[in-house]
Design brief:
mainly beta; homodimer
């Protein structure tokens, strides 16, 4: 997908691409591919790649210290199409839907459509989730330091960084919201 | 050049590309094209484009406050070829030369060659200059906040941000180093 987007990476980088399934064992529907270019104590840049209609679940980047109010990030669509959901008025006819059964943990419903060349900057500690369009998406992320282990997902079953020991070997199913 | 590099930008962004000639009036030889995607109080991302053999003069990003030790930046070559010069052992047969007559203000001579997919991270306050290869170059820059007006160029005649009033209307010529 990076190749389709015209993005050149080295062989070493190709081997370093992470398929982040969030420990859910349901990668084709929930997760993303990520290549971290740089992540220092001050800033970070990555490429993200999503399969068609693959979702990345709702989460936020909370304050981590007196001097770090949480990760600030800009998503820039490079290829394909991505639907980003953020706090704000609910979009009446959204173009993406949370994965079936997970609706209760996808709470922000204001839609931002990002086509190639479009970008959106998220302030720290802002709930967001996103889903690729029908062909998938490649998205550059420019941000302050990534501290994935600090991310807070709305679904309490999700941890961005999972211990191998605790890794699920069965697909995750969101609990259906109570009737 | 961005198009050649497979980088999609919006029409608004195309109009916002800056041809930074550093007030030298010699853009084809010294300067670069720059499109700033985002520059917040915490981080910054840009695309840089250089003509064939165009140079960007030696400078550094000094500390600006007790909490900001200066800009940290990563250059990632996307297209073409760029020769980056940084402190370190002088490279014996460098592939780029400072613009003629300007040799005295290009003092760091350790060469780093960046081809598409290659990148290099510069700590704050590090002298550096760079030049595109024979076809030009497109380079992504991921960094902490850009405060161009704080940059210190080795050539005391250069200011990154020039007042229109003080803008030269004749080509800049570096003073020849004394014999």
């Amino acid at each position: 997908m990076l190749r389709k987007a015209g993005i050149v990476i080295t062989g070493t980088e190709a081997s370093a691409i992470e398929a982040a399934d969030l420990g859910l064992g349901n990668f084709e529907q929930v997760g993303l591919g990520v290549l971290v270019y740089v992540n220092t104590e001050r800033c970070c840049a990555k490429e993200l790649a999503l399969w068609p209609r693959q979702s990345f679940p709702e989460h936020r980047h909370p304050p981590v210290s007196a001097t770090n109010p949480g990760k600030e990030e800009t998503f820039r669509c490079r290829w394909g199409l991505v639907y980003l959901y953020v706090p704000g008025p609910e979009t009446p006819r959204p173009r993406a839907r949370p994965p079936e059964g997970c609706e209760g943990t996808y709470t922000v419903r204001h839609e931002v459509v990002l086509r190639p060349g479009d970008q959106y900057t998220l302030p720290p500690d802002t709930l967001h989730w996103f889903q690729a369009g029908p062909k998938g998406a490649v998205v550059s992320e420019f941000s302050t330091t990534s501290l994935d282990e600090k991310d807070i997902f709305t679904d309490p079953e999700i941890r961005r960084i999972t211990k191998v020991v605790g890794r699920r070997n069965r697909p995750h199913r969101c609990r259906r919201p109570r009737p």
